[in-house]
Amino acid sequence: MDNRVRAFIDQKKSEKYAKEYAQKNDVLIRLGLYDKVYSPIPLSGPTSEYPNSEWDYNTNSYKYYRCVPFEVSDAEFEELLKYTGKSKETGVFANIGKKLKLLANVMFWLTFIGSLVCGLIFIIVGMDGDEDLLFAGLPLLAIGPIFAWLSNCLLYGFGELIDKTSQIEKNTRK
Predict the structure, then answer these.
(1) What are the tens digits of pLDDT across the range 70-90?
(2) What is the sign, positive or negative, of the torsion defined by CA atoms of 123, 127, 130, 134?
C-alpha cells in the first residue's frame, strides 16, 4: 500500500478515536463520574483549563477546577449506558425521535388552533358584508383541523420509527 494512503487511513482512524473518546468523556461527566482537578494556583476567574468553580468556605473564595472523567473500559462504558438509560449521542441529535414527535404535536396544535381562529375571523368579517371571506372561512373551519392532523402524521410517524429503531438497537446490544 502506498505510504500516503496508509498515512491518510491512520489519520482518519486517529480522528475517529479522538471523537469517540471525547463523546465518552462527555457522557461520563454528564453522569457525574469524574474527579475534580483543582488549579494549583489561585485564579481570579475561570479559564479554559479550569472552567468550573465552587466556593471554598475556608478561604472565602472560589476554587477553580476541571472535570477529569474516570477511566473506564469500553465494556464498562457500555454497561453504564445500559443501566443509566443515557445515550452516547450528545447535543442536538440526541433523542431525535422524541424531539420529532414533540415537534409534530406542537405543529398539530398550532395548525389546528390557527385554522379554527382564522376560520372564525373570516366568518365574522364575512357576515359584516364581505361574502368572499365568509365562503373562505367555512372551508377553513371545516378542513383546517383535518389538514393539521394529516400533515403531522408523517412527522410523528417518522419520530416513532426512529424511537423504535433505537429501542431495537439497544435490545440487540444486550
Answers:
(1) 998 888 888 887 777 655 565
(2) positive
